[in-house]
Amino acid sequence: MLQKIDALKCHLRRGYERELVVNADGTTKHNPCISHCLPYAFGNCFEKHDSRCSECDKYFEFFEFIRLHVAETQIAALEEAEEQLKYYLAHTTRKIYLNTQFKATLASLDKDGALFVADYKMRILPKSA
Q1: 23 in Cβ contact with 29 (< 8 Å)
Q2: CB neighbours (10 Å) of residue 48?
Q3: What is the DSSP string of 82-111?
Q4: Which of 53, 92, 101, 122 has the fewest C-beta atoms lying within 10 Å of its C-beta?
């Protein structure tokens, strides 16, 4: 069981990112696997998704297995952990997409172009400001 958890953790940290495809110009295209289809993730894909990724399926299988074997009192904590992991995957998906968008914008700049970058997570220290 611990080996399965380690394999899933490795896939979610590294493998999942490699499976998301964003073109160099920042565009995305339909992927038949629903777990890797960026247009679907952003609500813009209405095509059929008829394949499944065995690595991504391990995520759903893991939580189903744990749900069957955990005490009734721990179900709420399990669902909260699953929800937090979904937020992490959503963050990873957005990060991959936005990093490619940034690179595409930089590549499209000419000698008269400019790009402003604001890091909204940065905190300004009052003493230095």
Answers
A1: yes
A2: 9
A3: HHHHHHHHHHHHHHHHHHHHHHHHHHH--T
A4: 122
Structurally, the chain folds into a number of domains equal to 1
Does some domain include residue 121?
Answer: no
Quick check: is 17 in a domain?
yes
- Domain assignment of residue 74, given as a range: 2-108
Residue written as tokens 């995957």? Answer: 89
Decide if 28 contacts 38 (C-beta within 8 A). Answer: yes
Q: What angle do CA 38, 44, 50 make, to 5 degrees?
A: 65
**Cα Rg of the chain (Å, integer):** 19
C-alpha closest to that of 89 among 53, 126, 51 = 53
Residue 65 has a CB neighbour count (10 Å cut-off) of 13
Q: Work out the angle at residue 57's Cα, subtended by the Cα atoms of residues 85 and 27, and round it to the nearest 5 degrees.
A: 75
State pTM to two decimals.
0.76
Digit-coded pLDDT (tens) for 32-72: 988 889 999 888 889 999 988 888 888 888 889 989 998 99
